[in-house]
Amino acid sequence: MAVSTSFHHSDPPASLSKPVTVTVLEGHDLKGLKGDCPVTFVRAEFNGVVLGDSPKVDTSPEGSVKYNFTATFDCSPEGQHSLDDIAHKPLMFTVIEVLPKEKKQKDEKTVTLGQAGLDLLPLLQENATVFGEVFFWCCIEVSVSVQDSLLSPTQLSEGNLLRVTVEAAYAVPEAFVPAGPPQNYMVGFQVPAFGERECPFLFRNGVLKLGGEKEPVPRPKKWPAGNILAPGGQNIPDSFIVGGPYEEENGELNTPEERETRILGETVKKRIVWDLERRCYLDPAAVLCFRKRIADCRCWPVEITRVPMVTSTKGKTGKGEKGGGGAGGMSGTGGDEEQISFHGVTFVNLVPLLYPGVKSLRGAFRVFAYHDTEVFEKTKCLFSLFRDVGYQAALNKVGPMGMYTPHTKGILGKNTKEEKSAKETVIRKVSTVVKKDTSDTTLEAAVSIFQNIEGQQYVESGTFLVIEFALDKALVPKRLPEELASRVKEMIPPRPQLPRRTAGAKKEVEDYHAQVISIAGAILDEYHELFGRQLVGGAAVDSHTLEDQKCRLNYELNSSGKYFAFKEQVKHAVVKIVREKYLKTTAFDNLDQLQAFLSELYVYLVDQMHVALNQVLSHQSPSPPLPTYTTSKQLRLFAHEAQANEDYLLAATYYQERLARDRQDIESWLDYGAFCLLTEDTLKAQECFREALALNPKHLHSLLLCGITAVMLENYEEAEVFFEEATCLEPSSVLAWTILGLFYDIQENDIRVEMAFQEATKHQKARLAKEKPPPEPTADASSRKTVSAASSLVPAFAVSVEELVSDEIQDTSMKSQTDPLEPALVEEEMLPVPISKSSKRLSTISSKVKMGTQKEPTKPLVVVFEAEPSRAAASQPPSTIFMETISFLMEVYALQFVHRALAHELVCPQGGPSCDYYLVLAQSYLLRKEYGKTEECLEMATQIDYLNPNVWAQKGHLCYLTGNFGEAKASYERTISFVTDAKDMHFVYLRLGSIYLEEKQYEKAKTTYLLASKKSPSCLTWLGVGIACYRLREMAEAEDALSEANALNNNNAEVWAYLALVCMHGGRQLEAEQSYKYAVKLELANKDLLQEIREVQQEVGFGDPSF
C-alpha cells in the first residue's frame, strides 16, 4: 500500500502548515434592533475556534457598512485545522449589534443579528480563492484565499472527495416514541481518509417523526454541525436531496414487488430524519485502500443506535475541546458514557462504486440487529464504532461536528488517554483489526445474539435506511467513447464506400447517345428557324422541296460554324468508345488495319445514332436491363440449405457470390463470417467481421462479432475495446451489455460481470415496460375458457393422423383463421393440459400417451383445440437477458458464449431449466453431432412443453440425421400440424418431403414441397415438386417445376437429370440429349437415377448422344 502524500517526506509543500486568509469586506441591508444605523461587528469562527472580531463600525443610513476585517488560521494535516475540517465544516460568520449604553450601565450589551456559513470545499478543488456573499437577513461579502494550493498536484489528481448523505430511517420500531427522556439517534461508520487511518462518519441528532406524509423533495442537505443556531443556517448552499425512481436506485428495496412496502414505510410509518451530508477528503493512499476494501468485503457496515441525551455537568468547553459541550447536549468526557441501545447495522453494498465511471450510489438498505458474527461474515470487520470505540470518544476528540482529524492519536477503545506512536495507531485494517481471542469471540457472539433483543426490533419492523455515497471522481475510470472509437479505428481503419459506377463501355455508349440526342435537338431548332414550324397537314412533302431544304440547312450549318461545333461536341464521346469498347489505345501498324477499323467504327456509330434517334422520335424510353434472377436473400437461403446438407463447399460458393455482387453489403460479410465460425475457421471469420466493421464503424453486430472472434483468438484487450465501444454506441442495448458481462465472466472479473448484467436487466425492464400489452383476463378465467372451448370442439374434430396431415398440407387456410385455437394431439380420453402463469406449459400426459401416437399412427386421435397461450408467448421477447442474447449467439454459431450464457440462465432467478433452455442446449449438441446428449435435452424439453413446435422440429432433425426416418416423419408431421410454425419450417418441409419421396407417397411429397416453394422457393423445393410430379406422371407440371429449379440454380445435376427424363418421355430428342449431357458434365452422384435414365434411353431409343 502506498504511503499517503500527506505524510510523505518527498512532498514537503503538502505536509507544511499553510495559512488561510479570511477577509470580511462589507455588508449590505443591515438593520438593528433599536434603530436603522446600528453599530455592528462580525465574528469569524471555524472548527469551533473564534478567529477574531472585526472593528465596531457604524452602519450608514442605506444599511451598508465596510468592515475590511482580516483573520487567518493555519491548515495542516497534523494541526488543529486539517483538510478534513476544510472539507466538511463551514466557516461561520456572526453579525453582532452593539447596543447603546443605558444609564448606570458599565459593560456594553450585544445582540446577535444573524449567522451564516461559507462552504470552504472549493479550496480543495484547485481554487486558491473563494469569494462569495453570505446571506441571512442581510448580505455580507467575504473572501477566503490561500497563497498556495492546499493540495499538491499529486493529491489533486489522485485524491478524491467522498460525500455521504444520510437521509432517513423509515419504519422504525414502535418503541421509538417522542415522549419520555430525550434521545439522540445516531448513524456511524468509518472510512480510510489518510492512508489506512480511519475517519469516523457520525450523523447525530436524528429527528423522530410520526408517519402520515412523505418527506418533501427536493429538500436541502444540512451541515453535520450542532453549533449553528440561526434558522436555515444549517442548510448547505446549493445542495439538495432530490430523490428519484426506486428502480434506478442501488439499494435493496427497488423491485416492483417491494414498491408497496417502500411507499408504506416512507408515508405511513414512523421515521428518523437526518438529511445530513458529511464530506471527507481521501488522499491517494486512502483511495487505494478504500477501493481494495470494497473489492474484498463488498458490503460496508453502517451502524445505527440510540443514546440518551444528558446535560453535561463536568465537561469544560474550550479551544482544545472545540466546543465539545455543544455536541447535542450529551454527557461530557469527564463522566461515564451512556449505554447505547437499539444497536443495529445495515450492510451497504458499495460494489457499484467499482463499476467503470460510476461516481455515486443511493438506495434503501434494510437494518438488522448488530451481531459480531454476522458483521464479520459480511464485512470482515470485528470492530464496532459505537461499542468498541465509544461515540463520546469519537465526538469529544473531534469536536462538535462529529469529525475525526488526522492528528488524533487513535480510537482503539474507550481508554483514550494512552498516547502511542503513529505506527501503533492503525485504526482499522482488514488484516489488523482489533482482534480478540477466538474463544472469546465465539462466546461474546453468542451473548451478543442473546442480548441484542432491542436491535431485533429493526428486523421485525422492517426498518430501512436511505443513504447516498458520492465521489468527485470515479474509483475506476471509464474509457471515453472518443478513446474507444480511436482504438477501433487504429485496429480497423474505416474504408470509404466506393461510388457505384456503370460499366465503362456501357457508360460511354450512353454518353454517345446523349450527345446525339443533344445535337439532333439543336439541328431541329435550326430547321425550325429556317423553315418554320408549319407542316403541310395530311400532304406529303415534295422530294425536290426536301432536297432544297437539306442543301440550305447544310449551307447554314457550315457557314455559321455550327457543323464544326457539333463535330467537336461528339468527338470526345467517340474517342471514349474507341478506348473503352474497342480497347484501341495505340497506333495502327498499317493503313489497311486503320481503314478496316474505321469502317467497323462508322457502321457501329451510325447504328447507335439510329438507336438514339429512334428513342427520341418514338418517345420510348430504353428498356431496363434484365434483373438478376436470384436475389441476395435467395442466395442466403441456398447457402443455409447447403449447410443443412453439410455441403460446406457449395455453401461457401453462395456466400462468396453474395460478396462478389456487392462487397459493400455488411450483412453479406457477417453471414459469411458466421459460416466460417461454423466451420471453425476463426481467422477467416475475423477478416469478414472486420471488413463489415470497416464499412460501418458504428454497426453494433459487427463490433460484437469482432469482440467474439478476438476472445476466441485470446486477444482479450482488443475484445474489451470492441465490447465497450458497442455499449457506448448503444447504451440501451441488452445484447451488448450481456455479451460484455459474458466476456468479463471469462476473465473472472466478478464485479464487472455484476455491473454489465445489472445494466442489461435494467434496459430490458425499461423496454418491456414500454412494450407492455394491456392487461389480460386472470389465469383462472382463461383456463376455464380453455376447458369449455376444448370440450365443445371435440366431436367436430375427431380425425386420424393421416387425415390431419393431408388436410393440413392441402388446405393451409386453417392456420389463418381468426379463432385463436391450437390443436393438441391426445388420445380419445381427453386429458387436461394445464397452463402455468410463466408460459411454461407442463403437459400432464403420460409418457405412454406421448409415444403412443408414434407407435400407432393409424389409431384414431382426437384433436383438442385449446386457447392458444403459446402464440402469445412466442410473440413476446425472451424472459431473461441471457435467452435474448442466446438467440443472437446461436445465429452466428458462437458456441463458447452460448454455453456460458446457458450456465447463467440456469442459475438466474428469473430463468432456470426451461423448455427454451433445453432446446438451445440440444441445438448446440446437434451442431457438434453429439446425438445422445441432444436426445436427452429434447426429452427434457418435451416434458416441460409438450406442445412446442420447435421441440418437435428439432426432434425430427435429430431422427433424420441418425437415420430413424419413421420417427422423423412423425415428428415433422406433428410440427406442421400446430397453428404456430416452428422457426425452421423450410427444412422441416424439405426433409419431410424427402421422406415422402423415399416412401413413394408422391402426392404428399408434392404438396409438402409446394408449401415450401410458396414460403421460400429454392432449387431444392422446386426439384422436390418436379420429382413428385414426374413420379405421378404429371409431365407438364414436372417440366414447369424443374424449369423453375433450373432457373434458380443451373448447376444442379439432379435437375438436369430429371429434365432429361421428362424430355425423353415427351419425345424431344435434342432437349433430352442436352439435359443428359449437362447432368453427366456436372457429375451426377445419384447412381440409381443415372441407371434409370439409361433404361429410359434404351426404351425410347434416344437421349444419349453417344448412340
TrEMBL record:
It comes from the Eukaryota. Residues 312-333, 764-785 are annotated as: Disordered. PROSITE patterns: TPR. SMART domains: TPR. Keywords: Repeat, TPR repeat. TPR repeats lie at residues 666-699, 986-1019. The keyword Repeat applies. GO terms for cellular component: extracellular exosome; motile cilium. One of its GO terms (biological process) is cilium movement. SUPFAM superfamilies: TPR-like (SSF48452). It holds the Pfam family TPR_8. Residues 323-333 have a biased composition (Gly residues). PANTHER family: CILIA- AND FLAGELLA-ASSOCIATED PROTEIN 70 (PTHR44314:SF1). This is Cilia- and flagella-associated protein 70. It comes from Phrynocephalus forsythii.
